[in-house]
Amino acid sequence: MSGLTLQNIVKQFGTFTAVRNVELTVPHGTFVCLLGPSGCGKTTLMRMVAGLDLPTSGAIRLDGKDITNVPTHKRDLGMVFQSLALFPHLTVGENIAYSLRIRGIGKEAQKKRVDELLAMIHLAGYADRPVAKLSGGQRQRVAIARALAISPKLFLLDEPLSALDAKLREAMQVELRQLQQRLGITTIVVTHDQREAMTMADTVVVMNGGEIRQAAPPVEIYRRPADTFVADFIGMTNLIDFSADGTGASVLGASIPGLAIPAGLESGIISVRPEDVHLTAPGNAPISGTVTFVRDLGGTIETFVEAAGKQVVAVSMPNARPDVAVGQTVGLKLNPADCVVLKS
Ligand SMILES: Nc1ncnc2c1ncn2[C@@H]1O[C@H](COP(=O)(O)OP(=O)(O)OP(=O)(O)O)[C@@H](O)[C@H]1O
């Protein structure tokens, strides 16, 4: 298969298991984000893909070839790691040309490639600038260009945008994704920022405790989280207890017929996105509650409702603004198809 395959990767540091039984396929030309809280094993996994660490067991294949024991410099990688800063005493052009120069590529070819890359990162004409005179965003673009100079098969970035302020960071996320799409390069990015992962990735790999909890396209991670950890980590969802009642489930003190509960499960948690909670008149829906807070964010309106002692959030667009006030009793409609039964 063309692309990267991780087969049953385990990494132990002494008796501590930092990465456990990771199976992952990254098809050629796709963009994967490794996402998870601090200490979940993202960097450890990335370092093994880069050849900076050896797995305790398991195999890594690139385009079908076993590269588990191949040293980093023979893996055909471009890397942007936090620890790999630009060379401060070199110019922008010299930084980008570095890996071409050590491969013995001629001066003319180096210059041509540097100009090509500078145009790609919107810094045409910057070749002779000292890197010390660049802004944070410009530096990050130069680090990206330097990693891409040799046209690697695999592009690895560990928290590449974390040092940038929020606005620049968002702009760079779009830029990085566009660049990757233009080049069609297989790319893996480590991040702990769910919004960043959802913006850029074809596949978001959510990790916790050294394990992959879910690997899926952003929309699926968002709409159909696999378990309570993923739902909670992605955030802004309603996590509601249910108990099976024969025809469906009892949720917030009311019966929701048609909710598909796996056989044998008597109770658990469902995830319902706030945009799938529909507010209606109290007699119009099985669940009723009291409005406790309304937050108008301009683009969306969030209505907080307390039902059966639990807080539920409903999100509406301004063109469907709910006519409700704090203290009012409302009905809550949940469509069984929008309720995701989570693994614990
Ligand atoms: N060389 C090492 N020796 C011992 N333990 C290590 C080593 N490297 C990482 N660990 C441990 O392995 C676990 C995973 O670390 P890792 O750096 O992969 O997490 P991470 O998800 O990248 O976190 P962060 O977002 O904070 O960088 C952590 O508990 C860490 O302390």
TrEMBL record:
Q: What InterPro entries does this protein map onto? A: AAA+_ATPase (IPR003593), ABC_SmlMolc_Importer (IPR050093), ABC_transporter-like_ATP-bd (IPR003439), ABC_transporter-like_CS (IPR017871), Mo/tungstate-bd_C_term_dom (IPR008995), P-loop_NTPase (IPR027417), Transp-assoc_OB_typ2 (IPR013611)
Statement: the UniProt record of this protein carries the keyword Transport: yes
Q: Where is the ABC transporter domain?
A: 4-234
Keywords, comma-separated and alphabetical: ATP-binding, Nucleotide-binding, Transport
SMART domains membership: AAA (SM00382)
Q: Name one GO molecular function term.
A: ATP binding
PROSITE patterns from the UniProt entry: ABC_TRANSPORTER_1, ABC_TRANSPORTER_2
Transit peptide found in the keyword field: no
Entry's family note: Belongs to the ABC transporter superfamily.
Q: What is this protein called?
A: Spermidine/putrescine ABC transporter ATP-binding protein
Starting at the broadest rank, the lineage of the source organism is: Bacteria, Pseudomonadati, Pseudomonadota, Alphaproteobacteria, Hyphomicrobiales
